[in-house]
Amino acid sequence: MSEPFSLLLPVYRGDRPDHLEAAFRSTVHEQLRRPDEVVVVQDGHIGPRLASALERLESGSPAPVRRLRLSHNVGLAQALQCGLAACRYDVVARMDADDISMPHRFLVQLPVIEAGADLVGAAVLEVEEHDVRAGGGVLRVPPTSPAAIAEEARWRNPFNHPTVVYRRSAVLAAGGYRELPFMEDYWVFTRMIANGARVENLAEPLVRYRVDAGAYERKGGVRQLRSELMLQRRLRSEGFTTAGQAVRNGVVRGGYRLVPTALRRRAYRRTFTTDATAAATGTVLPLPVAPPWHRHPSAGRSVTPPVVRTGTEEDA
User: Fold this and answer.
1) CATH architecture, domain defined by 1-98
2) CA 279 to CA 191: how far, in whole Å?
3) Which of 99, 118, 193, 278 is buried most, with the most CB atoms less than 10 Å from its CB?
């Protein structure tokens, strides 16, 4: 039986109006199975141009739109946690304000949830601006089976966050989104897996994921390194990783944050992606397979929701 679902879309002042419009239209107007509501979380003041774009999209949307205005910029974890609380439906689809969904995305993802999964993601096509126009990009395929996802999660994020559809109840049962800059999605997914959530990925790319000129530079630096080491400490303290895995991850993933940007980009693309043209001819990324494993307790600090305002006018 088909279930209604909410689309959860956070927006902050750094988003581009034209990218937001493309993201919204691809994920609402152009979908073969449209969301039953759209929850837009406005993370602080966004400025007049972005606010005007949002108002146009809201007024012309074929699905009901509700916008939550947070009193100040609180970051992705708290914005998403507020958005989850506002969603009317248990099934929630994620989307970022600069990516592009394939028209059949929800047509293929929702049946997986309705068949019993708590969390389903998909492959992405990483695209730069010229790729959006020309149709190119590189393919990033996640592990697909529950066992492979569980094994991969001990090493890196096994889901492409902007592609996921999940049950809100499963997210909240694992403690919801918690504050951890740059790593909040990875952390919540590991806690969902540890809590027994039924997980799956589709090998088909269902989102065109924008990668701008500064994307790989932002994956490095001292702040990223601090968050990385904090994440590894938490995964270890929760029993999700072993001591050896924690040391390995700290050295390899921490070191990745400190190498020059050009080397970081080359290493990432060589390890985790393949050219979309090659993929179309049958090239398949190897996917790890893991043995069964047991549940682990989760822990961590919950976030405190900020002040939320609703309405149709942008605050000054």
Assistant:
1) Alpha-Beta Complex (3.90)
2) 32
3) 193
